[in-house]
Amino acid sequence: MDYTLKEAADIAGVTPTNLRILCKKGTIPAKKRGNVWFISETSLNGYQQFIRRNKTSKEQDNG
User: Fold this and answer.
1) Which letter, b or e, does each residue of 14-40 get, where b requires 16 or more Cβ atoms within 10 Å of its Cβ?
2) Does the pTM exceed 0.85?
3) Overall domain count for the chain
């Protein structure tokens, strides 16, 4: 399943602007069709796992 940028941002709990920047940089694999970015469920899940791992690492470093 593919999500629009807004749908993916809502699911990930980030702003569409931040997510768009990550897509443009290639940090999150995404496809642009016309003026609309689409992010696959797999790519979104990978991004969310990456965020969780980094959050956990930072909390352990500060703990």
Assistant:
1) eeeeebbebbeeeebebeeeeeebbbb
2) no
3) 1
